[in-house]
Amino acid sequence: MAAVSTRNIIKKFGEVPAVNGISLEVPNGEFMVLLGPSGCGKTTFLRIICGLEQQTSGDLLIGGDIVNELPPRARGVAMMFQSYGLYPHFTVRHNIAFPLKTQGVPRAEIDKKVEWASQLLGINHLLDRRPRQLSGGERQRVALARALVREPTALLLDEPLSNLDAKLRASARLEIKQFQQRVGVTTIYVTHDQVEAMGMGDRIAVIDHGIVRQVGTPTEIYDDPADRFVATFVGTPPMNIVARNGGYLGFRPENFLPKDMMDDEAFTEFKFRVDRSEYLGSERIVYGVMDGFDPKQVITAKLPPAHVDEASIRPGEWHPFAVRNSALRNFDKDGKRAGRH
Amino acid sequence: MVAIADSVPKPASRFRFILDRRDVLGSIFVAPAILYVLLLVGVPFLMAVYYALSAYTIYDPSWKFVGLSNFEDILENPVFLQTLKNTFIFTFGSQALGLILGKFGALVLLRPFPGRKIVRALIILPWAVPIALATVAWQWMFDSLYSVINWTFIALGFVTREEAPNWLGSPDLALLSVTIVNAWRFFPFAIVIFLAGITAIPQDVLDAATVDGAGFWRRNYQIIMPMILPIMTIGLVFGIVFTFTDLSIVFLMTMGGPVGATSVLGFAGFQTGITSGDVSHGAAISLFMLPVLLIVVVFMLRFIRRREI
User: How many other CB atoms are found less than 10 A from the CB of residue A122?
Assistant: First the structure.
């Protein structure tokens, strides 16, 4: 059964549509990531699910029941906010207990559940502190404990890692994911960071301009993008897309290699003039243009430095490059994948 | 080769860079403020302290030291005790009323509605209108014959013409009236304080409370109020200090009457010390405000520090 499912949700602010008809099924226990650029409507969609915004039309089902008219507190979902939204005047204990108190849970049970949630996140020693006495990572755990303490049907996370520094973010990513697997709570996670999306999501919904462009596992999103937007939004550097025969041809930079690195598999050859090459340690990014295509369009190649002969990428010269045919993706003139079902 | 003019070493003056020194420049900048406080607050205050301990009147400017006898005199005077009581009712009554109106007004003004900006500007008026003008208007509203308040009550059938209240004529109602006027004057300030406090609360915190299941009341009294308590307390300290020392509304509306029912410390001090010329007793009355205000302010500032979040 789907923990959360939406049917053609539309939300307009005045005349401006923020969410433009999203239908999504999130099965029980799944970690679903909503990925999209800033202003694509993903946060609005999340706020509709938890009831902070009312959709203009469309149905929202949580645990199988239509909850369109229910206030946030009756929906059984918990949300963790970008800046956590901890109550600064409460202690950590009181923060975690608050969602239970509002539901009139008996005191003894509140104590037990706070104990359980803080144990789960390893914050027992912080219970009597105030939020301002905590580090960013600790605040995040408190927010997570507060969201989980009432065992919600679905846990909604709105860019929870954006307030952490880069180093902490990597470890927090791992922690949230492990934690979610252990508890098994259905999770909807909003982010604009594709690394978070690819690394954490069981499935990813790529959203742009209020509509879902593609839903799929990270592998499907990366290898079989449904359209040009998904192809160029996911992946660094993004997929190369060139105009050809009234449509478009796409291939990932790591599949664009010097011809002498090709094996037996069928491939297509391109003449490539290298303009600039960046050595980044684990990889080498090479920029240039392809013969026979728009001379102003920069094509990138991502090469494994250890296996590349320096002579085959010398700048200013034309070199034979190639892409395996299995790695070529065709898009029609509207940017949709040609021949994809 | 062009010779660059020889630089003649100037004799270094000790004072050339004196203004670059922080301690010197800083002292120059704060000097006007310190002088102002010393001359226009400190000196009159010390004079008041001495007047209160002397037998000085304008008929007998003797400066004779009489110790605390002035204070003994006024404490034995039942009218003064009435005045002290009035001052507390006037101050805390109008602050409480102003805060309630302020909270209510702020909640209304936080919601978007057509014309909100105009209302926000107009709501400041009670605070901005000269108190003398406003008081005259209120005097008419409380007038025994022409009171628009009474007319409204009569028209609505709440009271008959015969039993319509005489606002400024009966002692209890008169004190209530001046308290209401002061609350009316204070509440725009309270609205501004509340608005500033509430809009400073991060939206995430309010949203979190909503999702955590807090309804309107719980959000208001368990999240918003505690979070704006520090700024509210500051506003209240200002309100209490200004009201406790205020005499303008009483002076303009009731002259302390009827029979001293609305007399407050500031008014009584002015009446005794300036109008009647009994400077020493007037000073003693005025100095009565000092310990009260000191206790209130110290208590509240300590409270804020403890609550700091």
Answer: 12
**Cβ pair B81, B70 in contact under 8 A:** no
Strand A2-13 and strand A57-62: the pairing is: antiparallel
ipTM over 0.85: no
Mean pLDDT for chain B? 85
Classify A215 in phi/psi space as left (phi over 0), alpha (psi -120 to 50) or beta: beta
- B233 CB neighbours in chain A (<8 A) are none
pLDDT value, residue B307: 66
- B214 shares contact with chain A (CB less than 8 Å): yes
Q: Which residues of A touch B217 (CB under 8 A)?
A: none
> A28 exposed, middle or buried (CB, 10 Å; 0-12, 13-18, 19+)?
middle
Residues whose CB is less than 8 angstroms from the CB of residue A271 and which lie 6 or more positions away in sequence, other chains included: A290, A291, A292, A318, A319, A320, A321
pLDDT single digits (tens) B106-145: 888 888 888 888 888 888 888 888 888 888 889 888 887 7
CA distance A39 to A192: 10
Cβ–Cβ below 8 Å for B211 and A73 = yes
Query: In this model, does residue A20 exceed pLDDT 60?
Result: yes
Please report which confidence band the pLDDT of residue A8 belongs to, taking 50, 70 and 90 as the band edges: very high
Query: Residues 112..171 of A with a Cβ closer than 8 Å to B: which?
Result: 130, 132, 146
Is residue A311 within 8 A of residue A208, CB to CB? The reply is no
Cβ-contact B123, B195 below 8 angstroms: no
The stretches of A59-163 forming alpha helices (DSSP H) are 92-101, 107-121, 136-148
- Phi and psi angles of residue A318, each rounded to the nearest 5 degrees, phi first: -85, 135
> Which residues, listed in sequence order, are joined to residue A214 by a DSSP beta bridge?
A206
CA of B218 to nearest chain A CA: how many angstroms apart?
8
The answer to whether the bond into B258 is cis (omega within 30° of 0) is yes
Apex A289 CA angle, A283 and A294, nearest 5: 140
Judged by CB atoms within 8 Å, which residues 25-84 of A form the interface with B?
Answer: 47, 50-52, 72-73, 77-79, 81-84
Q: Is the pLDDT of residue B161 over 80?
A: no
Q: Kindly report the pTM of this predicted structure.
A: 0.78
Confidence of residue B169 (pLDDT cuts 50, 70, 90): confident
Query: How is residue A86 annotated by DSSP?
Result: -
Residue B61 has pLDDT above 90, yes or no: no
